[in-house]
Amino acid sequence: MAIEIISLKCPKCSHPLSGFENDWIFFCPVCSLGWDFSGSKPESIPVSYARTKIQLEKSPRIFYLPFYLFQVSIQITDAKYLQKVKKWVDLLKRIYLAGFRLIRESYFGDLGFIYTESMIELESDPNVPENQRAKIGAGARTLKELEKYLILYPSLILDKRADITGVEIQVDSHLERIWAVPFFDLGEKIQEGILGKTFPSFALEEIEEFRKIT
């Protein structure tokens, strides 16, 4: 049986890609592209590096974790139910899906869902230097694995406003880009750079891999 060897160099510029052994998505810090190797051939996805929204007293080690951003449109045919949640249907235009995994995510919180429900708008930081852009990885979750959440997240959000039982929801979606969100290595804890949420460093299996990046 032949084994295909994939060269982890950017198909566009040949620069070495950033990522780890169990990843499916790898990143080119030169082209600001994510390359999805889960299919028959690599597919490129634009990457933007998010500007942090929190202030830290010290300057800890920074690394980036990937979030898929989908632009979405929600369709509900039940007019009576739609009337109850129309405000939220109109507001919910973006879905964030975490491209990485956390251990005990149900306990520490699903950051993709938190970002989606908070309806945050990320701001691009154009001044991230190339060596820092290379500190990204843990893209172990494929788009195929995550596609179910494009229905699940809106359903959970709307169900909090009105019981969704028996109501059919359709979500039209378009993958816009990957957001590289800054995280701060605080030693025993990790802090994400948008809402300031923290969780134990052991919750991210790849933390030691990030710490090896100079």
Describe the structure.
The protein is an alpha+beta fold and 214 residues long. It has one domain. Helices cover 23% and strands 28% of the residues. It has 7 helices and 8 strands. It has helices spanning 79-91, 105-108, 111-118, 130-133, 143-146, 149-159, 207-212; strands at residues 25-28, 33-36, 43-49, 61-76, 94-98, 169-185, 189-192, 198-200. Strands 1, 2, 3, 4, 5, 6, 7 and 8 form an 8-stranded mixed beta sheet that branches. The longest helix is centred in the middle third of the chain and has 13 residues, at 79-91. The model is unreliable at 1-5 (pLDDT under 50).
Provide the descriptors you would attach to this structure in a database record.
8-stranded mixed β-sheet; 7 helices; disordered N terminus; 214 residues; alpha+beta; globular
Overall spatial form: globular
Number of helices: 7
Strand residue content? 25-35%
| Gap from first CA to last CA | 38 Å
Q: How confident is the prediction overall: mean pLDDT?
A: 93
User: How many runs of DSSP E, i.e. beta strands?
Assistant: 8
Q: What is the radius of gyration computed over CA atoms, rounded to a whole number of angstroms? A: 18 Å
Poorly predicted residue ranges: 1-5
Helix content: 10-25%
Decide which structural class fits the backbone: alpha+beta
Number of domains: 1
The major beta sheet can be summarized as:
8 strands, mixed
Element pattern in H and E: EEEEHEHHHHHEEEH
